[in-house]
Amino acid sequence: xxxxxxxPAVEPFFTDTTQVRERLAExxxxxxxxxxxAVFLADRLGKPLLVEGPAGVGKTxxxxxxxxxxDAELIxxxxxxxxxxxxxxxxxxxxxxxxxIQSTGSRDWDATKADIFSEEFLLPRPLLRAIAREDPTVxxxxxxxxxxxxxxxxxxxxxxxxxxxxxxxxxxxxxRRPVVLLTSNxxxxxxxxxxxxxxxxxxxxxxxxxxxxILASRVPQLPDAIAREMIRIVGVLRSLDLxxxxxxxxxxxxxxxxxxxxxxxxxxxxxxxxxVERTLGVVLKHRPDLAAAxxxxxxxx
Length: 301
Prior knowledge:
Helix content is 47%, strand content 13%. The chain is an alpha/beta fold.
């Protein structure tokens, strides 16, 4: 790990928004205008991109697609309640340090301290790993709204300077700025200070036309009539007051399920009530949601 004397270099992945759209499409990620523009600006300006939206609309998948198109390593920090600096930044390998002290038997603390507080005993976590890399990197800070407010303060420091100060070793500054995406399901309001440092993108559930395109790209064997009926039903389900609305990924899973069951083998196949009721567990994962769906769709009557 090295310390940079100047700010990190910004080396864009994309030349324009058209290239963003085309390259993402090559990975199977069909992006709209707002998404392609936000990704291009985050890449070109070197600013973090905060992506909000319901669970399952493709926020995490967007980071994976960007990393794939740029042949970059994806480093993911999965946030959760109670995550702390040691899990996000770095920690010391205390067991290895103790063994080293015992094996050397040195009474010179200054020399021993210099030995054990070195890179050999450092355990870099996602934020430090992303900053220390010199190769193309995409840093995904996933579900940041699940982390405590204190973690936001840590992110402010790291994302402002793209540097991490390790008291025992000094400052590790990025030589090449990673592309940074933060995702949030908006379960709590993020601080204005964090939002100010980011570009912002909201991804909602796609409209019927866009979802048909996504489904056709991921499950091309699915007959068009079946796909249209599936998407109509998914739209109805999302309009209900459910604990967990069906995600795009679950729509794709449903299409693959129908193929696996042989329901969609014929171009004249249709999605009848019995098949819908038997396979609803692919798109809905809570018992009250299933009951509400059966009632709304008037299944089993």
